[in-house]
Amino acid sequence: MKKILVTVLFICAVSLMSAQSYKIDVTIKGLADSTIFLAVHGGATKYSVDTAVLDKNGKTSFSKPRTLEGGMYFIAVGGTALFDFLISADGDEKFGIITNKDDYSEVEFVNSPENTAMLAYLDYRNQHQKKYETLIEKLKASADNSTEQKALRTELLNFNLPLISFSDSLINKYKGKFLATVVNAFKPPIEPDFSLPEDEPDRERKIAMNYYLFNKEHFLDNIDFQDERILRTPFFESNMLDYYLENVLIFKEPDSIIPCVDKILARTQTGSRTYRYLLSHIFNFYYASKVMGHEEIVIYLGENYYLKPETTWETEKFRTDLINFIERNKPTLMGRISPDLLLPMPDGKRYESIHGLTANYTVLYFYDTDCGHCKEETPRIKEIYDKYKNELGLEVYAVYVMYDEQKWLDFIEQNKLDWINVWDPYRTGNIYNTFNTATTPQIYLLDKDKKILARRLDSVNLEKLLQVYVNRKEQGN
Domains plus CATH for the chain? Predict the structure, then answer.
């Protein structure tokens, strides 16, 4: 897939300067005469904000006549991050940090109740997690349907209530502080009781589906997408947003994913930093996806967000590349009827069309005789054709995309290609744009009605998919 240069919003802590100042006193006992760094998280990237040098007593200060943007920061020494702390960016960036080079996990904050409370919260969560792991081990060891197991399941159902209560107390106490946003983001939603009677038909599948639907709808509920400080953390991008897209949305069909993406973006203000970040990140996530059919999500985001008049921050090159991507991919999205082609066969007298074929399944194969990958894939596809042409009623409509007729004819003879061979010497079929043949090979699979079942296949996945249809046929489906 040709790369589109997508702007990833740079959420940096050195912009938006004001007349305010910050002063962070740092003491690292046992570490003298060393340069240390003040840095901020930005998803997977870290940004240096300031430097200071510890004196012989391990003391120094970060101080500048400007404010810091809110987010999660850390102190680093020699390229190693030592510990995290919060900046709320509300004019209260004057506090002290004391730690020891022998154990950086032992941190004390001076005149920063917010960060002291953060340490208490992290300790509470760690203890909560240990209790959870113990409970799960007991559950695994208990006998099926025993009184003990039922009691443990009841305990598990209510297990998060103390954590939720502790979180709420911090959220209320530190309202407006970044700590409240962070704690709320990690607060688990209260799950309904999805248990069903033991004799319920298909019980386990129904329970699993209820959990999936609940998580799909509520996994991100407690994240404040209006608070851009959440972007400057190490956890939001990977532990929340990407985890949701990759692991919570387990059904990968575009029709299932697109409403969830719309819901996320609707929780931000159009054009805001958070909106721009989320849009670019989600766009990149699905543009890089190897899941078949996710081009439809990219096209949807392009047409419904990026190409709107109010989206003014992207470059003209990005818009041009995006439009080209849409034009090359939209005609052949999965589930659509394939565009037709009527192209000449090797004798130059007969023409064959895609829609004129009566096969149960048709492989559209676009190739170039000089393409190394095509030279490898062609004999493999020939084996697949020979194997399934009678069993499934399979046909191959193979299109040579270049101009050298003799090379084409030699290639057909050398590979004994007894399927439908055509080419487009006068470019009447507009193959490049219609079937996205900027790179070859391109392999599509169509059903008997010429609906596109799969696109951008290779020979391995083509055979796997055909075997699925063989199995369905054998089962009478």
Answer: 22-111 (2.60.40.180), 117-331 (no CATH), 342-474 (3.40.30.10)
